[in-house]
Specification:
By secondary structure, this protein is an alpha/beta fold. The protein has eleven helices and 13 strands. It has a five-stranded parallel beta sheet, sandwiched between helices. Strands 10-8-12-13 form a four-stranded parallel beta sheet. It has a two-stranded antiparallel ribbon with strand order 1-2. Strand 6, helix 4 and strand 7 (123-125) form a beta-alpha-beta unit.
Length: 299
């Protein structure tokens, strides 16, 4: 249809918007700011673990000057760790030339953001990407640190994983995203895509997101037990900030026997739900080993 932009055209526009003008780097963040850097950032403080891991995946690990307590310390040896509640003075002491956060954390960090901006430190607020927005997200993130062709590693990783999805009948998987109200993953979420790439069938593929764009979808115990009657092979429980549970808690639930012969498997939240290019292949491979413990037919 005349006048419609194709997907490649959209990404060309994004790239053009991030190209330097007279040495500048300029992007629009997800809180409405225009972020302008004189050059690619060399000392980045990242206050969201997903941003930190994606910087690593883009080869910009040397530019990370500080991370939050939510980050995996094994990934950032020697990098200063900041408390979960942002501290403006401690951030400024690290002499950053860019601070990354996400819009969900801005309300609690409003005073910190004002302090940083008064100190001349650019702040960029980027939403955690969905599967569909990951490429555009990487274009913006990569522009800030001067990464070359930042979307290419993503395209290559996804393509390689799609080529190796196990063939044959798929195990039916139910993912518990949160025990509060018993939430599962929404059909378009990162976790749902990981399940599919691992060769699983999302047993709750008709779940309705909690709200538009949310990775969570309400399900409830009654519907879960009805679903178990149709057959669930693996009851996958993500464990982390969104679902702080232990195996003992799960096994003591009064309805747990209603899952029948389903295998109950706990998975670290960051492996299946964090939008991280760094963890994508490991997360898919980990889940493939769970779903196909004796090996599956690979193309």
């Amino acid at each position: 249809m005349a006048g419609r932009l194709t997907l490649p055209a959209v990404f060309l526009l994004l790239l053009a918007a991030c190209l330097p003008v007279s040495g500048e780097i300029r992007i629009s963040d997800d809180s409405g700011r225009t972020v302008v850097l004189e050059h690619a950032a060399r000392r980045v403080v990242s206050l969201y673990a997903g941003h930190s891991e994606n910087l690593l995946a883009l080869g910009a690990g040397n530019a990370i000057a500080g991370v939050s307590a939510a980050d995996d310390p094994a990934l950032f040896p020697g990098v200063p760790v900041l408390p979960m509640r942002a501290d403006g003075e401690r951030i400024l002491a690290l002499r950053p030339d860019l601070v990354l956060l996400r819009p969900q954390g801005e309300a609690a960090a409003e005073g910190v953001i004002r302090l940083l901006e008064r100190g001349g430190v650019p702040v960029a607020s980027l939403s955690p990407p969905t599967w569909e927005t990951m490429e555009a997200y990487l274009v913006r993130l990569g522009a800030l640190v001067g990464a070359a062709d930042p979307a290419r590693p993503w395209r290559e990783a996804v393509s390689a994983l799609e080529r190796t999805v196990p063939a044959g009948k798929r195990p039916r998987v139910f993912l518990e995203s949160s025990s509060r109200g018993l939430m599962t993953c929404s059909p378009s979420s990162w976790a749902a895509r990981v399940i599919a790439l691992a060769g699983g069938e999302n047993a709750a593929s008709d779940a309705v997101p909690l709200r538009s764009g949310s990775p969570l979808a309400p399900w409830g115990e009654e519907r879960l037990l009805a679903l178990a009657g149709e057959g669930i092979d693996v009851y996958l429980v993500q464990v982390g900030a969104m679902n702080p549970v232990m195996e003992r808690d799960i096994l003591e639930r009064p309805w747990i026997s209603g899952l029948g012969n389903a295998r109950i498997v706990l998975v670290p939240e960051e492996l299946v739900s964090r939008p991280s290019l760094l963890r994508l292949e490991d997360g898919v491979e980990w889940l493939r080993n769970v779903l196909y413990p004796e090996g599956g037919k690979r193309p």
